[in-house]
Amino acid sequence: MSVTESVAEGLPGRAPAVHEGILRRQSARESSARTYARALPIVPVRARGLTIEGADGRRYLDCLSGAGALALGHNHPVVLEAVRGVLDSGAPLSVLDLATPVKDAFITELFRTLPPGLAGRARVQFCGPAGTDAVEAALKLVRVATGRTGVLAFTGAYHGMTAGALAASGGAPDVQVTRLPYPQDYRCPFGIGGPGGAETAVRWTTSLLDDPKSGVPLPAGMILEPVQGEGGVIPAPDGWLRSMRRITQDRSVPLIADEVQTGVGRTGAFWAVEHSGITPDVMVLSKAIGGSLPLAVIVYRDDLDVWHPGAHAGTFRGNQLAMAAGTATLAHVRENGLAARAADLGSRMLTRLRDDLGHLACVGEVRGRGLMIGVELVDPEADGSAPAPVSATADPSATADPSSAPSGPEPFRTPRPAAPALAAAVQRECLQRGLIVELGGRHSAVVRLLPPLTISDEQAAAVLDRLSDAVAAVARDHTLHDPRHPRYHGPARRTG
């Protein structure tokens, strides 16, 4: 069956049988490692902007956006035009690391967007097509440049699925990685929260590096996410980021910023590190930079460029279609001020979600930055846990500089246990209402929104209506079917 015939199968009239048949064959033939397909049993056949149409004829608002890869949504006209231009030109589609006009245009546009402190002295390495390969390249680069081996990473991090990237994320055991606390308010690792928690995280890091008996030698680099995405949509406080930059700079430890998901306007700045004003030594970029096609690079300070030819290579580094799509995407975001719009719209969406959901005991916190938004679901009936109110401010710019931090710890209330079952129920309820959302966080208890930067105000309102309705429905169902609650109505009826 041709691709055209496969898509045509999704036409109305044949929709239910085609939909079920494809899902059935997927279950029988694809790996048990598949993830999104388990929670989102849909068969996309057409898409434009925020909207996906399934083979069953249903339409969905897509707030997964290819795990953040679709900065402009599905099939944006500027991306399609760029891809068609390469196809119609007769240019080669894959060129290893050879120079081409398409690549030259991509690099020029990419450098135009970089933080000023890096753009003037940057080098770029094209990696394999996925972000995880770019992380591997970054770790390899700083080890070669410094002659050291260890890496500093953070709890809750996600940097990819290859061995080194998994180690930095907390997975593989064979890479020497020291794990540091990542500051957050709702589940502060020190039980403090706010600026006091961030300050303690700074002091912990400083002590670990400066104590000759800590067992942690000076590392080759530090890798961090300005906003932890898979970790539960946790924005790093700007002051803490500035402190990490100062700590690493004072000790000649290269700082690697993983901007795979946060980059290209997602958080309300073109690059998320710009909120804090820091300039990292290395930036890891993928997802949105390819305009929906596979592309990954690292950009780094020129004095780190001590690699020998072939030190990091790969067959699929020269994807011309992705570079053209990426150039069009980067330029469109820059020229149309979409990062600033993401900041404004994201702030309004967070405010409304806090207003709509803040009274629900099953919602622990609503947080985010720009169009990277998370709602953490918790057990409202957990014994021995004091209620933790939804954060009304969650200001990621809170200081972590010891000289300006307030004296004494901030008031902190013990958070309720995470409720992954409730989060999964919210995801199912959203899908029934035509809304695609992602789950994340330590226990997969955070419902995540990653809409395209092109989402309209009207579409954003529709997304929030559906999400709020889904959370409220799950909250009602939990209340009525929790035997600990005085309004218990018996076990919940299972469907599907």
Considering the chains and any ligands shown, give keywords for the structure.
Aspartate Aminotransferase, domain 2, 2 domains, seven-stranded mixed beta sheet, Diaminobutyrate--2-oxoglutarate transaminase, 15 helices, 17 strands, PyrdxlP-dep_Trfase_small, alpha/beta, pyridoxal phosphate, 496 residues, 38% helix, PyrdxlP-dep_Trfase, Aspartate Aminotransferase, domain 1
The spatial strand order of the largest sheet comes to 4-12-11-10-7-5-6
Average pLDDT confidence is: 87
Through-space gap between termini = 31 Å
Which regions have little confidence, pLDDT < 50, spanning 5+ residues? Answer: 384-394, 399-410, 486-496
Share of helical residues: 25-40%
Indicate the overall shape.
globular
Structural category: alpha/beta
Known CATH architecture of the largest domain:
3-Layer(aba) Sandwich
Q: What is the tally of helical segments?
A: 15
The proportion of residues in beta strands is: 5-15%
* Main sheet: strands, sense, barrel: 7 strands, mixed
Quickly count the domains: 2
The CATH class of the largest domain, by name, is Alpha Beta
Q: What do we call the CATH topology of the largest domain? A: Aspartate Aminotransferase, domain 2
Protein name: Diaminobutyrate--2-oxoglutarate transaminase
Family: Belongs to the class-III pyridoxal-phosphate-dependent aminotransferase family.
EC number: 2.6.1.76
Cofactor: pyridoxal 5'-phosphate
Description:
Helix 5 runs antiparallel to helix 12, helix 10 packs parallel to helix 11 and helix 13 runs parallel beside helix 15. The chain has 2 domains: 214 residues, Alpha-Beta Complex (Aspartate Aminotransferase, domain 1), CATH 3.90.1150; 256 residues, Aspartate Aminotransferase, domain 2 (3-Layer(aba) Sandwich), CATH 3.40.640.10. The strands form 4 sheets. The protein has a 7-stranded mixed β-sheet. A 4-stranded mixed β-sheet has the order 1-2-3-15. The protein is of the alpha/beta class and 496 residues long. It has 15 helices and 17 strands.
